[in-house]
Amino acid sequence: MSATGYLIGVDVGGTSMRASAVTTTGTELARHRLPTSAELDPQRTLDRLIAELRAFLPPDTGKPRAIGLGVPGHVSAGVVRRAANLGWRDHPLAALLRASTGVDRISVSNDAAATALAESAARGHRGGVLVVPLGTGVSGALVRDGVLLGGDSGAAGELGHAPVIPGGEPCACGSSGCVEAYASARSVVRRFRSAGGRAHDAADVVAAVAAGDSRAAAVWDSACDALARGIAGAVALTDPGLVVLGGGLSAAGEALREPVDRRLAELLPWRDAPRLELAVLGQEAGLTGAVALAAAAIGDGQRAP
C-alpha cells in the first residue's frame, strides 16, 4: 500500500478510545481499543492508541492520509474547548496530533457530529438530517447533503442545552429547563428516583413505564415532551427532512420514538413534521463517523468502512 492509501478514525470516549484504519475504498485494515484511565492523561492514551494501531499495519504502509476524531465535548477549529469527562479545556488536540504523528490533515469534531455523518451516510439520505444522541447527556448535529453544518463556534445542532421549559429543572450547564435536564438517561433516572422509584439505569425506568408505574410514566412523558420541544425548535429553523434518535436511550425503541413523534406533530401544526427514526448503526456510529471526518479532510466521498 502507498503511504497515502488509508485513513484513521478515532472514537474518543470518557471510558475508552477506539481507532480504525481504513483504506480510502472502505476496507478496514485494523482496529484497536484502549481504556481511558483516570490516572493517565487522555492525550497520552490517544497517542499510544494511534501508535499501536499503526504497528498492526505492514511496515511499508507509511502515514495515513488523514486522521478524524470524534470527541465528547465542544470542539472549535481543532481545539477541544471543553470535554468534562476527559478533563480537557482549551486543549489543542489537532495541533498536538500533528506534532506526534506527522500527519497534516487532522479533523476533530464533536462526537455527535461524527455520529450524524455516519447515520446520514448509512441511509444514503440527501437533504437535511438532524441526529440527536441521547445518553449520559443530550447532544445533536446537523448534516445536509453529507456535509456537516458546524456553525461559527462548532456547536450547531446542540439540543442538550436548549432551554425549553421556563423555570424548569436545573441543568449541569448552569442554566435551567434545558432538554438535557429532562431527556438524558442520567436525568430520567435521577427524576424517577426523586419521585420515589428505584432504578439502576434508564432501562429500568422504561421497564417501569411498561409495567404501569405512574411515577415512571410521568418522568418519561416529561422527557419526551422536552425532547420534542427541542427538536421542534431545530426543525423550525433548519427544516431537516429526517431526525434520528441515537445513543443509549434510543434502545427504548418505539417507547421513545412514538411519543416524541406524536408530540412533535402537535408542536408543528403549521407543517408536516419530518420523519423521526431510530439510529441504525448502534455502537459503530461514532467510529464510522470518525472515519468519515478523516475522509472529509481529504475531500474524499468515503463515508464508512
UniProtKB/TrEMBL annotation:
State the family it belongs to.
Answer: Belongs to the ROK (NagC/XylR) family.
InterPro entries assigned to the protein according to its UniProt record, in alphabetical order? ATPase_NBD, ROK
The answer to keyword Kinase applying to this record is yes
Q: Which UniProt keywords apply?
A: Kinase, Transferase
Q: Which GO terms describe its molecular function?
A: N-acetylglucosamine kinase activity
Q: State if Transferase is listed as a keyword.
A: yes
Instruction: State the name under which the record lists this protein.
Output: Predicted N-acetyl-glucosamine kinase 2, ROK family
Family matches, as PANTHER family: BIFUNCTIONAL UDP-N-ACETYLGLUCOSAMINE 2-EPIMERASE_N-ACETYLMANNOSAMINE KINASE (PTHR18964:SF149), ROK (REPRESSOR, ORF, KINASE) FAMILY (PTHR18964)
Q: What is its EC number?
A: 2.7.1.59
